């Protein structure tokens, strides 16, 4: 899909979303002037501002910090308003159908309709405001450490208690900068990890734009090193330059390959693959290649796979992977998007099994777009590995 086509689709979707909000909150409530005109103008500015913001940022990246906060926050608010209004419309439709079935048509009363519309608008606006405050606090507050115990059949007993810390979906960009990364690095190092895995979607911007913001990742410390695999957003931002930059910071980028972790006495295989979207990115040689990463596995050795998207487990399980570690879903980030994510990914968050493999999906360490999380708190994941008894 070309940028022009994508941009046109975005404008149509945003236009429809804001028209629906205007229709329910302004038109149907028959607000007296000048309030109706003021709200209409405001919605037009906000609807147009979202795509225009992206164009401005493409031309002047330094404007991202100024424009990102108000417009991305409004994007989150508008989605909450949409779903709340849609819920009330579905409820009203069910009531109307019920009256029809009972042959009790409600009389048409303009004053009554206006009163109902204003009452619904007031309740929905108050609910959206409350949910926005909760979601902002969740996204912008401290990131909690989630401790996940995992037992694996082929895990070497001498390595019991191995601490793997996962960071994923940080999305450094318009509203996430250096200060956030410094905090995450400090919290991660405090866990005294044996290995750190960054499973993609680290950035939303080019190396030139975000080099300084990402630089603190070079201070990550783990006994067996720091590893990275690409996510789909790296392919929007220039995966090859980011791989080079992360390598310069001392982070090992696994590209459809695996390495041995441990020593002669006890070890396991750590594999990592490019994100699936890399094959369509236009960057030569990119894309998920499990055949290459997992070729000629020793059936006696445990394999931990880093793959950005959970759906990779459908193929990786057939290779004998013991544990796949993924991100991508954000746990839905803002309820009720978790229900839509399920249409694209088999698992949303947490530890699951598929055939002989286990897969852990983090809800993400940062957020994408709106600085909001509702029902899906961010996490730094500490996975503690042990042999199955």
Question: How is this structure best described in words?
Answer:
The protein is an alpha/beta fold and 389 residues long. The protein contains 11 helices and 12 strands. It has helices at 3-27, 35-59, 64-101, 110-140, 178-190, 207-214, 234-237, 239-248, 290-293, 313-316, 337-341; strands spanning 144-152, 162-167, 195-198, 226-228, 252-253, 257-262, 267-272, 303-306, 323-326, 350-354, 357-361, 379-387. The strands form 2 sheets. A 6-stranded mixed beta sheet has the order 1-12-2-3-4-5, with helices on one face. It has a 6-stranded mixed beta sheet with strand order 6-7-8-9-11-10. Strand 2, helix 5 (178-190) and strand 3 (195-198) form a beta-alpha-beta unit. Helix 2 packs across helix 3. The longest helix is centred in the N-terminal third of the chain and has 38 residues, at 64-101. It starts with a helix and ends with a strand. The model has no long low-confidence stretch (mean pLDDT 92).
Which helices and strands, and how do they pair?
Elements: H1 3-27, H2 35-59, H3 64-101, H4 110-140, E1 144-152, E2 162-167, H5 178-190, E3 195-198, H6 207-214, E4 226-228, H7 234-237, H8 239-248, E5 252-253, E6 257-262, E7 267-272, H9 290-293, E8 303-306, H10 313-316, E9 323-326, H11 337-341, E10 350-354, E11 357-361, E12 379-387
Parallel strand pairs: 1-12, 2-3, 3-4, 4-5, 7-8, 8-9, 9-11
Antiparallel strand pairs: 2-12, 6-7, 10-11
């Amino acid at each position: 899909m070309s940028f022009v086509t994508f941009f046109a689709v975005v404008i149509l979707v945003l236009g429809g979303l804001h028209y629906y909000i205007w229709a329910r909150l302004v038109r149907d409530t028959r607000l007296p002037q000048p309030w109706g005109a003021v709200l209409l103008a405001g919605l037009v500015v906000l609807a147009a501002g979202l795509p225009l913001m992206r164009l401005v940022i493409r031309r002047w990246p330094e404007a991202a910090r100024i424009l990102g906060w108000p417009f991305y926050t409004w994007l989150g608010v508008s989605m909450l308003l949409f779903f709340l209004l849609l819920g009330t419309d579905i409820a009203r439709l069910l009531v109307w159908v019920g009256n029809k079935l009972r042959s009790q048509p409600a009389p048409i009363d303009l004053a009554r309709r206006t009163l109902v519309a204003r009452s619904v608008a007031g309740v929905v606006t108050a609910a959206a405001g409350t949910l926005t405050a909760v979601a902002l606090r969740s996204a912008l507050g401290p990131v909690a450490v989630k401790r996940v115990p995992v037992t694996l059949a082929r895990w070497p007993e001498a390595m019991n208690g191995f601490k793997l810390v996962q960071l994923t979906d940080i999305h450094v960009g318009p509203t996430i900068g250096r200060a956030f990364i410094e905090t995450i690095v400090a919290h991660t190092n405090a866990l005294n990890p044996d290995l750190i895995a960054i499973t993609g979607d680290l950035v939303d911007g080019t190396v030139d734009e975000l080099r300084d913001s990402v630089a603190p990742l070079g201070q990550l410390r783990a006994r067996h090193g720091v590893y990275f695999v690409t996510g789909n957003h790296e392919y929007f931002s220039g995966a090859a330059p980011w791989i080079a930059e992360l390598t310069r910071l001392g982070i090992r980028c696994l590209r459809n390959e695996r390495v041995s972790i441990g020593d002669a006495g006890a070890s396991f295989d750590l594999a990592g693959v490019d994100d699936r979207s890399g094959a369509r990115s236009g960057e030569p040689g990119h894309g998920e290649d499990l055949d290459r990463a997992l070729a000629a596995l020793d059936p006696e050795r445990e394999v931990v796979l880093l793959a950005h998207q959970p759906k990779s487990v459908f193929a990786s399980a057939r290779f004998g992977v013991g544990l796949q570690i993924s991100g991508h879903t954000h746990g839905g980030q803002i309820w009720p998007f978790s229900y839509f994510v399920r249409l694209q990914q088999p698992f949303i968050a947490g530890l699951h099994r598929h055939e002989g493999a286990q897969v852990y999906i983090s809800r993400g360490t940062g957020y994408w777009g709106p600085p909001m999380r509702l029902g899906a708190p961010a996490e730094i994941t500490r996975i503690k590995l042990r042999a199955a008894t």
